[in-house]
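2024-03-11 09:14:02 INFO worker-7 job=invfold-0412 stage=load source=structure_tokens
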């Protein structure tokens, strides 16, 4: 009824008046792109994650601002001595946005949905250790594993719980999401806005403090900046360094920053020449000058980085350990010669439609062209880029991908043979063995040793040339309280925000 009433208001031309009455409580957010879909088990793009993760949907666990695992929809859990059985006690009184109670069967169904070959979720590899999921009673569920999984609790934070009726439905949640989160879906005007309203029956009493979130889709950076300065928007989340620098010092604008877990990269399709040859992939790394990329494309607000973000201090290796990270165009050309490929090596690079990635792609294009390549940039709209990425329809691509607190969350699904986001078609028996070993080890020192070896191998001859980790900024009106930028780009703490 609420949704139809709002649509009637729009049709009658009263949308502005309707929103004005709630303007003090509905947080106006300016974003550069709209989502390509809202199904939490299918989405792969930041604009979709920004809307649904933590706002509309929740997992059994959650990741806090310090990247620690905390309770989510599960208030507690126990693990068997052999690490192969997890029992979760669910919060009581949790309801989905359609009014139905969330029970253990919904959790079981959500896990089965992610693992379903018909659904083809890009998250499936994160749950591949699960042998079975069972409801013990309405508020208790159990996971039995084929083998121990050290990263399971971290991975479960990314698995949204949806109603059991959606288990086999591939389409319904893309445009009409139904979760348990602090905000519920109200309206989506393509290329205009997405409106979420307060979940009045949210399990965490007193939350959220805002009456809703309105994600205004505004492609032009200058327009978003003016909107923030004049009070039209209260928040510009997860912005790049160029935008942050332009907003610094503006009246009534404050900046929040952190080291980003997300990484920029050049992806290589190893299923066809020339990138099926590891010497060519190594040549790409020697051709790239990462500090130059930081200086030119990120305005100095970032650092050169390897396969893991420096924010993961207990896991990431110092990039000085990677020989190929010292720029050497002559070495790159020598490797191309050793690979037996004719130069210049003509390839295309598809570019994620973000200004920072476009800037990075242009710098990398120039660097590669000086080292024996001939790169043509192909700028695509977001939907086409994601489709080509998922279908491995590329020679090279330039992108920004999300990082996670545990290396398994990124490495296993991305570089393991057959991984659910291994769009590179990469397969290496040594990497597979190390990832399997690290996933099942409970000893952190042993996991660290395995992941060090993975990073060493991936850095120079893997299918992704990792480039930089930027400083991640959010800009907001000075009156917005309780919101901080999170390293994983989550807007989870908007539930605590007030304006």
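2024-03-11 09:14:09 INFO worker-7 stage=emit residues=499
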């Amino acid at each position: 009824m609420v949704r139809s009433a709002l649509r009637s208001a729009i049709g009658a031309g009263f949308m502005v008046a309707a929103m004005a009455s709630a303007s003090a409580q509905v947080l106006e957010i300016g974003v550069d792109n709209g989502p390509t879909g809202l199904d939490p088990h299918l989405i792969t793009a930041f604009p979709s994650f920004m809307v649904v993760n933590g706002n509309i949907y929740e997992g059994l666990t959650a990741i806090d601002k310090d990247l620690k695992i905390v309770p989510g929809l599960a208030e507690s859990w126990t693990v068997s001595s052999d690490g192969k059985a997890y029992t979760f006690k669910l919060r009581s009184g949790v309801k989905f946005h359609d009014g139905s109670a969330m029970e253990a069967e919904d959790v079981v169904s959500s896990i089965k949905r992610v693992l379903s070959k018909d659904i083809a979720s890009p998250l499936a590899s994160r749950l591949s250790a699960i042998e079975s999921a069972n409801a013990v009673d309405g508020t208790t569920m159990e996971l039995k594993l084929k083998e121990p999984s050290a990263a399971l609790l971290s991975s479960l934070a990314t698995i949204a719980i949806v109603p059991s009726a959606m288990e086999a439905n591939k389409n319904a949640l893309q445009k009409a999401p139904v979760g348990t989160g602090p905000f519920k879906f109200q309206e989506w005007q393509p290329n205009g806005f997405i409106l979420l309203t307060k979940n009045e029956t949210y399990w965490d009493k007193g939350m959220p403090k805002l009456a809703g979130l309105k994600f205004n889709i505004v492609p032009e950076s200058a327009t978003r900046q003016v909107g923030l300065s004049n009070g039209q928007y209260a928040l510009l989340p997860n912005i790049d360094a160029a935008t942050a620098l332009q907003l610094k010092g503006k009246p009534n604008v404050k900046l929040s920053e952190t080291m980003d877990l997300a990484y920029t990269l050049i992806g290589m399709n190893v299923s066809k020449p020339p990138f099926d040859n590891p010497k060519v992939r190594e040549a790409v790394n020697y051709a790239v000058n990462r500090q130059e990329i930081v200086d030119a494309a990120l305005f100095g607000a970032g650092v050169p980085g390897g396969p893991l973000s420096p924010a993961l201090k207990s896991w990431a290796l110092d990039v000085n350990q990677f020989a190929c990270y010292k720029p050497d165009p002559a070495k790159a050309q020598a490797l191309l010669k050793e690979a037996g490929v004719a130069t210049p090596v003509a390839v295309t690079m598809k570019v994620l439609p973000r200004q920072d990635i476009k800037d990075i792609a242009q710098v990398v294009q120039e660097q590669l062209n000086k080292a024996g390549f001939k790169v043509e940039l192909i700028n695509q709209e977001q939907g086409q880029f994601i489709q080509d990425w998922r279908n491995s329809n590329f020679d090279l691509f330039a992108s920004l991908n999300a990082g996670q607190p545990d290396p398994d969350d990124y490495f296993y699904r991305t570089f393991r043979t057959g991984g659910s986001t291994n769009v590179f078609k990469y397969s290496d028996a040594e990497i597979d063995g190390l990832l399997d070993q690290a996933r099942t080890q409970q000893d952190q020192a042993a996991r660290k040793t395995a992941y060090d070896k993975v990073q060493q191998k991936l850095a120079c001859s893997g299918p992704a040339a990792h480039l930089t980790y930027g400083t991640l900024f959010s800009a907001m009106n000075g009156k917005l309280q309780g919101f901080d930028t999170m390293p994983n780009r989550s807007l989870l703490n908007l539930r605590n925000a007030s304006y």
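2024-03-11 09:14:09 INFO worker-7 stage=report msg="DSSP finds 16 helices and 19 strands in the chain."
2024-03-11 09:14:10 INFO worker-7 job finished
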